[in-house]
Design a protein that fits this description.
Helices cover 42% and strands 20% of the residues. It is an alpha+beta fold. It has a single domain, classed as 2-Layer Sandwich (Nucleotidyltransferase, domain 5). The protein has a 4-stranded mixed sheet. Helix 3 packs parallel to helix 4. The radius of gyration is 15 Å and the shape is globular.
Length: 123
């Protein structure tokens, strides 16, 4: 077995383990984070109806002006988390479950979560 497939299996196990407590909750929506090398994406999903309620990412045209002022990817993640929280509160979503999607809770993932928490979302 190659090193790449071992790492992929390890990531898949981490991802499944982090999703287990987050899915299937009737009272709370799920905030899912995806992190690529260049961008970060966050979306709030209703698991019962299986559709996305709110989404925000570094690719969004509406926040490009703010993102250009940010110096690092962590600052960009904080901007995305703040914008995601504002959009969620506009749709009366306060209580969520955080799904880190297998990514380690530090760096950009933590920055997005902390910014969302600071701007009104309850985890």
């Amino acid at each position: 077995m190659s090193i790449i497939s071992k790492n992929a299996k390890r990531f898949q196990r981490r991802r499944n383990r982090s999703k287990r407590p987050a899915t299937g909750d009737l009272s709370r929506m799920r905030l899912v984070v995806f992190r690529s090398a260049r961008h970060i994406y966050g979306q709030i999903i209703n698991d019962i109806e299986k559709h996305t309620l709110v989404a925000c990412s570094t690719v969004d045209k509406s926040i490009q002006v703010k993102l250009k002022k940010a110096g690092s990817k962590i600052e960009q993640s904080q901007i995305v988390g703040k914008e995601l929280a504002q959009r969620a509160l506009a749709k009366d979503i306060n209580e969520i479950v955080f799904d880190r999607n297998g990514f380690i809770y530090r760096g950009r993932v933590k920055a997005l979560a902390d910014a969302a928490r600071k701007n009104g979302l309850n985890f």
